[in-house]
Amino acid sequence: MTNFKKFLLVILVGAAALIAEFGLGQPTVAFWLIVIVGGLTTISMFIGMIETLRSGKYGVDILAITAIIATLAVGEYWASLMVLVMLTGGDSLEDYAGKQAGRELSALLDNSPQIAHVLEGETIQDLPVDDVAVGALILVKPGEVVPVDGRVSAGTSFVDEASLTGESKPVDKQVGDELMSGSVNGDAPLRFTVTKKAADSQYQTLVKLVKESQTKPARFVRLADRYAVPFTAIAYLIGGVAWFISKDPVRFAEVLVVASPCPLILAAPIALVAGMSRSSRNGIVVKTGTTIEKLADAKSIAFDKTGTITAGSLSVNEVYSLTTHFSEEQLLQLSASAEQESNHILARSLTNEAKRRAIALLPVTGLEEITGQGITATVANHQLKIGKAAFAGCSESHQKDQTAVYIAVDGVASGRITFDDVLRPEAPATVDTLRQAGVQHIRMLTGDHRSIAEEIAQKVGITEVHAECLPADKIRIVQETPPDQRPLIMVGDGVNDAPALAVADVGIAMGAHGSTAASESADAVILKDDLSRVAAAVTVAQDTMKIARQSVLIGIFICVLLMLIAATGVIPALLGAALQEVVDTVSILSALRAKNDRAGTEKFLA
Asked: pLDDT tens across 320-334, in order?
C-alpha cells in the first residue's frame, strides 16, 4: 500500500471512529478502530524501519512507532490517531517531494534504430535491426540514423556523431571508415558492411550503460535522518526520566506525543517541495527532493562541452581571402548565396553569418551538389566551387581538427572559411558563480579533440580537461571521483551523456535543445537554453536547504521545550497531540519560505 493510500485509510478510519464515539456513543468501537489502523500502520512502519537499518541508515520511524504504541497502551487513542494523521500525511508529502521519474530509459529505447535496409543484390529488404547478421550489406539513406555498427563499403558523406562522441563538427566518412550506430547520416547515401550485431553496437551499449548506472545509486543521508538519532535519544531520555520519577507510564506517553517527529517528517519535505516549485517556476525542473539536498552539498561538477558549455552549433570563425580580387565580405556573400538553397551541413552556418553581418544574399542558379565533395553554383555571373580543398583547387592550411570549406571563383582558388563551435556567453560567469557557491572541483568531459577542448576550457576558467571521451570513459571518470569531492554534478545534453548523467550523484540535462534520453536519465532538467541556470539550481538548492534546516531546528527546539513541560505532567496526551499541530504549523510556515526568490539568486532567474 502506498503512503498516500495509508493516509486516506487513516483519515477514513478516524472519521468512522469520531462517528462511533460521538455520534453513536460507542467509544469501544472507536478505540478498536484506531487500534487496528494504528497496529497495521505500526507493523508496516516497523518492516520499513528494519529495511532502513539493514541498508545502514537510521530514520525517525522508531520514535513515531514508540509514540503510537505508547499512546494506545495507556488508552490515549485519540492522541494516537492525531499522531497517525500527521505521520501518514508527512510520508505522503515526502513521496511527492521525492518521487523518481519512472521513464528513464523509454526515450533512449524509443529513439534507437529499429529497421535496417539490407541489400541483397540490388534488392532492398527492411529487417528489424536485431535480425541483421554480421557481414550484411546495409544502405543508410540521407538523414537516417545508422542502425548498427559497420564499415563503409561504398559512398562518401558527412556523418553527425555529436550525440555519441560529443564532437561538434560533422565527420567525413569514406570507403573503409567505421560507422557507429546512433550517428546520423548527412546528405548522401552510404553502403556499409555490418561489423557488430545490434545488441553489441554503440547505441545499445549506451542503453546498457544507463541501466547498469541506475542499479548502483549513490548512498546519501537525508536531512531529516541526520537529526533523527539525537532527537530520538533526547525524547527517550526525557520520557524515561519522567516515567522513572513519576512512576506513571502515562507520563512517558505524554512526552512521546509532543516528541512525535512531525517537524522532521514535514518541515524538510515541504521546504524541498517549495524549492522544487521555485526551481520549476524559473525553468529548472528538479525531479526529486533528494536532488535538492545533493545540489546544495555539491563539491564537484563535470561539464560536457558540445551543447553545454558551447552552443552545439558551428559558426563562422574566419573568412580568409586568397586573392585581391575579392574581399572577405564578398567571399562570404558569394558563398552564403550559393549555399542558401543547399542542404549541405554547413549551409545554415554560412547563411546565418551573412544575416548577422547584414549581407544581402544574391540569386543563385545552376546549383549542383557533388556528393562528398561540395557544391557548384553560379552567383552574380561567377562560377563557384565550394567544398573540400582539393575540390576547390586550394591547399589545406587550416588546423587539422578545425572544420573549413574552400572557395574557388571562376576556376581560381580564392579563399577559405573556417568554423568553430560557439562558446555560450554565460559560461565563464556560470563557472565563476559555482566556485563562489563552494563547488571547487570543476572539470570538462568531452569527446572532442584535446586542442579544441583545452581552448574552450581556458576561456571559461576550467583547468581539468578530459578530451576524446567515449560514454564509458565519462562514466569511469565520474565513478572514480573520490569521496571528499562528492556529491558530484554532471551536466550534459546528448545521448552520449545519458549514462554519465545517470551514474553521477546529480545529473543535469540541458533540455531546451538536448537529447530526450539525456533529460530522462537526469535528476534535473534545464528547460531554458541558458547555462547560468545550472549555477542558479545550485544556489536555489543551497537556499532551500538553509530554510529546511532552520525549519527543522525550530520544530525540534519547540518540541524539546514541550517535552520538558510534558515531563512535569501538566500536558495531557490529547493536548500534547493538539500542540503538535502548533509545532507543525510553525514548521510548515517556515518551510514555505523556500518557494520565494530571494536576494542573491534572482539575478540568475531573470
From this structure: 998 888 999 999 999
